[in-house]
């Protein structure tokens, strides 16, 4: 049975993550694609919530998958694999934030010529049409939240992770997750969530060609390391 057939069978039969990991560790590295396709959207949403940048979020996904692959044998099973993987993505995202802040501090130390930047605040017809869509309205509202609340609400309400898994991924107590989630929801206008309704599941999509691109890049990096 070729790799594609095995992946399709795994998805059809719903192989547990732990079984897939065991087979990858046993030498069936091509099955790592199952893990990536299962969690591409989740990792994208989490990284996007922290970094607020599409390109950086995609880069973090790739780095997180490679790091997870390199340390698969260290997964001890004390938490769910999905929480362990998400925790790696959170760590990679926060590391980028720290690096970004250090670079900004260095740039601030260098004298620069004053510049006058003219910014147009008028929205184009395309932007207005986009803003009218429920999914985009919800995305904008979430990304405007402070980081601590933004990440928790992305995991719990958008990705629908459990309180326990969210706590594990963020190194928080479950009670702290509940408090942050409550405050995050309070910051979002109730009518916004009511209007978005079922559109929540469609917010921050990551699929199709972008999903394929991440899978391909991760396998290329893994191949170069072996």
Task: Output the keywords.
single chain, 226 residues, mainly alpha, Rna Polymerase Sigma Factor, Chain: A, 12 helices, 71% helix, globular
Folded structure, characterized:
This protein has a single domain, classed as Rna Polymerase Sigma Factor, Chain: A, CATH 1.10.1740. Helices cover 71% and strands 0% of the residues. The chain is built from 12 helices and no strands. Helix 4 (54-70) packs across helix 12 (208-225) and helix 5 (81-108) packs across helix 9. The longest helix is centred in the middle third of the chain and has 28 residues, at 81-108. The protein starts with a helix and ends with a helix.
Please write out the topology.
Layout: H1 3-13, H2 17-25, H3 32-51, H4 54-70, H5 81-108, H6 125-131, H7 134-143, H8 147-158, H9 163-170, H10 174-187, H11 190-196, H12 208-225
Helix pairs in contact: 3-4, 3-5, 3-8, 3-12, 4-5, 4-12, 5-9, 7-11, 8-10, 9-10
């Amino acid at each position: 049975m070729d790799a594609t057939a095995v992946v399709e069978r795994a998805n059809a039969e719903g192989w547990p993550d732990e079984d897939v990991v065991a087979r990858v560790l046993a030498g069936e590295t091509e099955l790592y694609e199952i893990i990536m396709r299962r969690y591409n959207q989740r990792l994208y949403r989490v990284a996007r919530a922290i970094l607020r940048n599409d390109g950086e979020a995609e880069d973090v996904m790739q780095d997180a998958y490679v790091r997870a692959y390199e340390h698969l044998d260290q997964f001890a099973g004390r938490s769910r694999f999905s929480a362990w993987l998400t925790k790696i993505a959170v760590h990679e995202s926060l590391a980028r934030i720290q690096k970004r802040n250090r670079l900004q501090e260095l740039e601030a130390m260098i004298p620069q010529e004053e510049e006058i930047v003219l910014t147009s605040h008028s929205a184009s017809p395309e932007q207005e049409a986009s803003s009218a869509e429920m999914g985009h309205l919800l995305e904008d509202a979430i990304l405007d939240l402070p980081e601590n609340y933004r990440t928790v609400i992305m995991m719990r309400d958008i990705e629908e992770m459990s309180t326990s898994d969210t706590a594990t991924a963020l190194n928080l107590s479950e009670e702290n997750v509940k408090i942050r989630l409550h405050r995050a929801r309070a910051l979002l206008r109730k009518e916004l969530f009511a209007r978005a309704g079922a559109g929540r599941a469609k917010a921050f999509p990551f699929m199709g060609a972008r999903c394929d691109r991440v899978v391909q890049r991760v396998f290329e990096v893994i191949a170069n390391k072996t």
